[in-house]
Amino acid sequence: MAWITRGLIFLLVLILLLAGAVTWLFAGLDVNQYKPQLEQLAAKQGVALKLDGDIGWQLWPNIALKLEGIQLAPLPLPEQPLVRADAISIGVALMPLLKKRIEAREVVLMAPQIDLSVDERGRGNWELITEAIEAKQKQQAEEPPKLDVPADGDREGLHFALEKLRIEDGRIRYRDARSESEYIVEKLRVSADNLVPGGEPGQVQASAEVGGNALEQPVELKLNSSLALDKGLNGLRLQPLTIEAESGEAAAQINLRGFLRRSAADQPWQIQLNLSAEAEPLRPWLTLTGTELATQSGAVLKRFSLETDIQGTEKKLDLTPLQLQLDDTIFAGSAQFRNDNIPGLDLTLRGGKLVLDDYLPPPSPAEEEEQASPAATTEPTPLPLTAMRGFTAKLNLSLEQLNAVDLQVDRPQLQLTVDNGLYRLQKLSAGLYGGQLNSSGQFNARGQSAQADLSGGLTGVEIFEVQKALFPNERVQLSGKADINWTAQTSGKDTEQLQKQLRAAVQLSSEQLAITPFNLEKGMCQLVSYAEKTPLPEREWPARTRLQDLRADIVVEGDKVRVQEILAGVENIALTGDGEVDLEQQEFDFALGLSLMGNKTSADGCTVQNERWRNRPLPLRCKDSFADAGAGSCKPDSRRLDDLLREELRYKAEKKYGEKVEKKVEELKDKLKGLFNR
């Protein structure tokens, strides 16, 4: 056992000798002499460094330099610090220290505070520092930066080779005077190992609590990553990086894997990353940010996910392939972001079935009353013309099916380009109202007011579905298939001007079109029975008219719709005419001419004995409001009956009275005019 005793005595003597050597070393090494050099080094980089306390030694748990009362500020404004810290400990290597050379290995920041702000002009307080740094010529070294210290005996200087970084109880405050927003990152803890450029990957862990006036409650963040720094700080490899966020029921996760790298300090950064993100459930995140989104379905906004590969530079990023998922709808495609003189976005997405109605807010009682009242008016909404400029875009969006406003749209596709306020609708197509929609146009928001033009068509469309969506009315209804083509132009600064300045030409054609509640054949038979003094056939007249081979030319001027020409067939009747629809007053007025082709209006209709009533247009007027329209809205047109009466009476008078025509015409005219007006 004697050798054990001698060994212990030897170790004790060795420890005492080492302790004495370190004590002698520290006593002879005044580290405060480095304070001016540290401040000068910071000033050369455009940073005002202030050390309120002395630089001292920390012996436990590791040998370290300890700096207290640190402040960093822009060099022109040294009294407005951006960064404060109660203390910074810089761990040093023991062996270099025995040679009286300080080599920093670990940095610990205690309670650092960072204050960032943006003024009303959009200028950040950190820009004074970044501008000063960018003004210097960038120099990159293969080794971490050195601080040369004047030689004093055999002292060599202060070297930095950061292997570990720890931050305890940090805080970051951000304020934006333009939006009056403020965010605070508190309880910041960071632990990073092996941050030596060119070394092996190290582990980084961080946690913090984020609050702000735009958040209903704080968000807890956790970061875990394996990362490596390239030599010269010209690259960063993430292998991978995971960020977890939680706040009450809200939960999300972001995963990044890849690298950021540049060939030299003056070259652009090359980015190659794989990104995946998921928020489930999604609705609590909207509530957290103050977006109270009430939806018609409570089963939506459950899940959102994104996955893509990111490649490019800070000037141009490609996201290919790009996959998004919102609840049960999956979108696939690609995207490109450009950050040149004018920012730009190219986006191509193809999706499955989307029930948009589920995401729309339910109508409020006030909105339902407003929809039920035709007289209700709304204030015009100004167009955001300024916000519609200043960027470019190319959008190509398509879905298998879209359900919106109780309408099913099959295979909708939108192709739109934007060039600094000029919007070109290259293609809008969809299976709509049982037919096919194709449209194109342009919207110019570059001037003081917007100008727009649009052209297109609907083929094989169910006209009842069009009317229900655009001109809903329970009394006057149209049904059947039709083809519609249009061209339209408008201009204005707000929604009201766009409506008032609307000018459109519409062509409507249909082989079979039914209109309710009017029966034009009955109106024809009433004219004939009055003229021939025959009774109206005893039959049930349906409150509907079927029009064959309908052709109509329609002109839209603001709230007025003028039908310039109507051509159609009703059983054995040829219909011609024109008319007007007042959308604002919800009224219509049509002047029609009904010509009998043959001697009967239909198989069970009325018979016309007098050949002179055949093949000639008999006047009928359909005039009413949409709210009061009914079978009695179409009557013989007294405005145009005078000419027909005068012509017919002259014919009869000449046939019966010969030269005494003029006198008898006036007598018969008064009698028959009263008959027609009854």
Strand content: over 45%
Helical coverage, percent range:
10-25%
Radius of gyration: 42 Å
Which structural class matches the secondary elements? alpha+beta
Shape: rod-shaped
Major beta sheet, specifics?
Answer: 31 strands, mixed
Helix count from the secondary structure assignment: 11
What is the end-to-end distance?
A: 141 Å
What's the β-strand tally? Answer: 31
Mean pLDDT: 81
Uncertain regions spanning at least 5 consecutive residues: 1-25, 139-143, 147-158
InterPro entries: AsmA, AsmA-related
Pfam families: AsmA
Protein name: AsmA protein
Write structural notes for this entry.
Residues 358-382 are annotated as: Disordered. Residues 372-382 have a biased composition (Low complexity). InterPro entries: AsmA, AsmA-related. This is AsmA protein. The protein has eleven helices and 31 strands. The chain has 678 residues and is an alpha+beta fold. Among the domains are: 294-363 and 387-447, no CATH class; 461-636, no CATH class; 638-678, no CATH class. It has a 31-stranded mixed β-sheet that branches. Residues 1-25, 139-143 and 147-158 have low confidence and may be disordered.
